[in-house]
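Session log. Operator J.P. requested a structure for one protein chain; no other inputs attached. Running the standard single-chain path with token output.
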Amino acid sequence: MSTDSEYKPHSHIPYGSDGSGFYSDNSKGCYDVIEGALPLVLKAASTTTTPKDSTFTIVDYGCADGGTSMPLMYALVKLLRENDEKMPIHIVYEDQPVNDFKSVFMRLQGALHHTMISDPKEKELFARQAAIDWETILLHRAAELRPGGSSPDMC
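Structure written below.
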């Protein structure tokens, strides 16, 4: 993907060579913030009711190269596995299109799923369906909200 003609980032372009993991390797402050929030996140996860036969999803929004949140992800998976060894766990790493995802992939273990669509008509169909799916997700999350509920937010 060419960042010059197709996409102009709104905040930053990752520093360091692609796949180097530079951000996490040089961001102790981010580790400290996430480590400080770990008890809060684990408490929230331990009190979350997950319906039987469902998937527990964890999302790192603004993941950079993924390294700063991986200790948290490992701790969450360990906690979830202690309660239910067979429950599917889905971890999503999300960031800008220009993000250093190569470093994320190099830090990960296990299954990784990705696809590229080049046919414009097919791409449009997927984009339309994604918009419908996203709206459905947001409407369902809104219906699930309860007065007095909370969500751990590290930012």
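Operator note: The first helix runs from residue 22 to 25.
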